[in-house]
Specification:
The protein has nine helices and 17 strands. Helices cover 29% and strands 31% of the residues. Helix 2 runs parallel beside helix 9 and helix 5 packs parallel to helix 6. It folds into two domains: 86 residues, Beta Barrel (Elongation Factor Tu (Ef-tu), domain 3); 158 residues, Nucleotide-binding domain of ferredoxin-NADP reductase (FNR) module (Rossmann fold, 3-Layer(aba) Sandwich), CATH 3.40.50. The protein is an alpha/beta fold. Bound molecules: flavin-adenine dinucleotide (FAD) and FE2/S2 (inorganic) cluster (FES). Flavin-adenine dinucleotide (FAD) binds next to strand 4, strand 6, helix 2, helix 3 and helix 9. The site of FE2/S2 (inorganic) cluster has 12 residues, from loops.
Length: 280
């Protein structure tokens, strides 16, 4: 069964917001879960976190990084994708903790949205730190302003908010005596690794959403295996959220890059096929 793209919006260069028609995902998905999309018969399966739902549609926010995410960006409202499977993975553990710090790096702000809304509804006080390389790459600021009790913006180049990394702002808050009961961090793996190291020193449980390479998304292929607290876990069925203080980050980063050469070749061939992609 194919699924129509009902709405598509450009949030930043190479980052798109899609609402895709789906009969069951809007009813059954919970914050923290993901879906898998296959664009067409020849397409690979790409996991994407559910950024929200609306009547009859599921929202995903996607950064173009390789062939499949570029190909998705070439589709427009009214076009269809072949398969959308989910919800997959475990929902976030939403309950009342007290003070929460949410940290989103780049497109990682998107999966944090439904988590932030649910944590606020559960009575938590939310401090959100959202960072990107430049102001142009910062997404969903209005939605974060509306929901977070306190919003801190950072950019690597200082073009908006404070100059520097999200980790600097977290350290600053902790050194000023902020006591967080939980941290949630979603973004580039290296960002989640360093947030987790700070959380470990401060002894604060720290949820991160891991993004190893996935194939089936149902615990059968082993592609997404990660080491957490010394045991082997499958991110698709045991996660995708884990306490980052116990993740073997170096192994995860190594495994994420294992097909880099093939990914580069596939993207180069795709770019030759479609031509100009400067509109991205
Ligand atoms: C649970 C989960 C949720 C995710 N949610 C989002 C999201 O909400 N928005 C978003 O933009 N991206 C998300 N990603 C990452 C997204 O799946 C990859 O960017 C996408 O699969 C890359 O496909 P590609 O063909 O465009 O790029 P490729 O050329 O295949 O790869 C480019 C990069 O993406 C990584 N990657 C490749 N294949 C996968 C795969 N199957 N799973 C994970 N990473 C892969 C590679 O390590 C490589 O660094 C998520 C990943 C996971 C595991
Ligand atoms: S993606 Fe195959 S086991 Fe997780």
């Amino acid at each position: 069964m194919s699924h129509k793209i009902l709405k598509k919006a450009k949030l930043a260069t190479g980052i798109y917001d899609y609402f895709i028609a789906h009969p069951t995902l809007p009813v059954f998905s919970k914050p923290g879960q993901f879906l898998i999309i296959r664009i067409d018969e020849r397409g690979e399966r790409i996991p994407l976190t559910i950024a929200g739902v609306s009547d009859g549609a599921v929202r995903v926010i996607v950064k173009c990084v390789g062939k499949s995410t570029y190909k998705l960006a070439t589709l427009n409202e009214g076009d269809e994708v072949l398969e959308v499977v989910g919800p997959l993975g475990n929902p976030s553990e939403i309950e009342f903790y007290g003070e929460i710090c949410l940290i989103g790096g780049g497109v990682g702000a998107a999966p944090l949205l439904p988590i932030m809304k649910a944590l606020k509804e559960a009575g938590n006080r939310i401090t959100a730190i959202i960072g990107a390389s430049t102001s142009e790459q910062l997404i969903l600021l209005e939605e974060f302003k509306r929901t977070a009790h306190e919003l801190i913006i950072t950019t690597d180049d200082g073009s908006l908010g404070k100059k520097g990394l999200v980790t600097h702002r977290l350290e600053e808050l902790l050194s000023k005596g902020n006591n967080f009961d939980r941290i949630w961090a979603i973004g580039p793996t290296i960002m989640m690794k360093f947030v987790s190291a700070i959380a470990s020193r401060a002894e604060i449980p720290c949820w991160v959403s891991l993004n190893p390479i996935m194939v089936d998304g149902t615990g059968m292929c082993g592609a997404c295996r990660v080491e957490v607290n010394g045991s082997m876990k499958f991110a698709c069925v045991d996660g995708p959220e884990f306490d980052g203080r116990f993740v073997n980050w170096n192994e995860l980063i190594k495994r994420q890059h294992q097909y880099q050469e093939q990914e580069r070749i596939a993207l180069d061939l795709f770019k030759k096929e479609v031509g100009d992609l400067s509109w991205l």
